[in-house]
């Protein structure tokens, strides 16, 4: 039986690694993005999650859909479009990349919106698998990279800990599921690293890889909100990001799940390995000084 896999968000942090893992495995993979960027070496399709007509073209001939949504105010609407189009196109399985602690009844904005989308997928009538990754190690490259390069990390997360997961492990798990989706139908997997770390411990790991001290300052919530407003972030995004910060400060993402090791047959990557592998990225000058 054929298994043509479409990866949404294929040019993003998770999507790029996932397409790479599927390609190495010899899977029949198609990359989808809304930007028109292509992924070298695989067929690429352009579609807008807000436009069901464009999705219909992108989903044509697809057996298994990897559904990854941008974190933005209309993401539930985008999910509804994708799920309805997948069902109409005859997609046989949806692998949905969600988030740790997703729950439509969650007190946190980020957990609530992820949970609402999970419910849409579960109630779609299409066989599904949910993967719920914890906070990404790669956030320290993308969102926090300039602060690391400048020598001090400022976040409103107190001394809270999280079992950070390497995106490369997230991609490997999803690649395995996507190639054999029937074996994972109806299942939910929580993807974490093997150890919970505070930001003080994270910056110590990064500092050890760089051979210099990296500091961490726990900033007050109101200062973080003011900074995000000054940067032009919209109120929905600010509240969603701050809800994640509060969850981390409270230590909720500290739990360690066995799912990565169970699915990959090896321990998840450590933060020390991640820091050593990406040390060169932090040795560049901060973007404002280039």
From TrEMBL:
Top-level taxon of origin: Bacteria
InterPro entries for this protein: Ergot_Alk_Oxidoreductase, NAD(P)-bd_dom_sf, NmrA-like
Domain NmrA-like: 2-226
Signal peptide: none
Designated name of the protein: Nucleoside-diphosphate sugar epimerase
């Amino acid at each position: 039986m054929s298994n043509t896999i479409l990866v949404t968000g294929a040019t993003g942090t998770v999507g790029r690694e996932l397409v790479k893992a599927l390609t190495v495995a010899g899977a029949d993979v198609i990359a989808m993005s809304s930007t028109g960027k292509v992924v070298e070496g695989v067929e690429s399709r352009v579609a807008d999650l807000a436009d069901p007509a464009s999705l219909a073209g992108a989903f044509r001939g697809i057996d298994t859909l990897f559904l990854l949504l941008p974190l933005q105010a209309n993401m539930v609407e985008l999910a509804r479009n994708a799920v309805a189009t997948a069902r109409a196109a005859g997609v046989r399985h949806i692998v949905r990349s969600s988030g740790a602690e997703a729950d439509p009844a969650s007190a946190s904005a980020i957990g609530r919106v992820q949970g609402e989308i999970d419910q849409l997928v579960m109630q779609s009538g299409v066989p599904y698998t949910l993967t719920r990754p914890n906070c990404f190690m790669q956030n320290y490259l993308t969102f926090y990279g300039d602060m690391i390069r400048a020598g001090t990390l400022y976040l409103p997360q107190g001394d809270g800990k999280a079992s950070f997961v390497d995106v490369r492990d997230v991609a490997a798990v999803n690649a395995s599921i996507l190639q054999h989706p029937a074996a994972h139908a109806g299942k939910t997997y929580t993807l974490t690293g093997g150890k919970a770390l505070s930001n003080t411990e994270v910056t110590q790991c990064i500092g050890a890889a760089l051979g210099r001290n990296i500091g961490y300052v726990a900033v007050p919530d109101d200062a973080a909100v003011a900074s995000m407003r000054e940067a032009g972030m919209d109120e929905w995004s600010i509240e969603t990001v701050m809800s994640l910060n509060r969850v981390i400060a409270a230590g909720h993402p500290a739990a360690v799940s066995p799912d990565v090791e169970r699915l990959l047959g090896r321990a998840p990557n450590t933060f020390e390995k991640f820091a050593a592998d990406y040390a060169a990225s932090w040795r560049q000058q901060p973007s404002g000084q280039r």
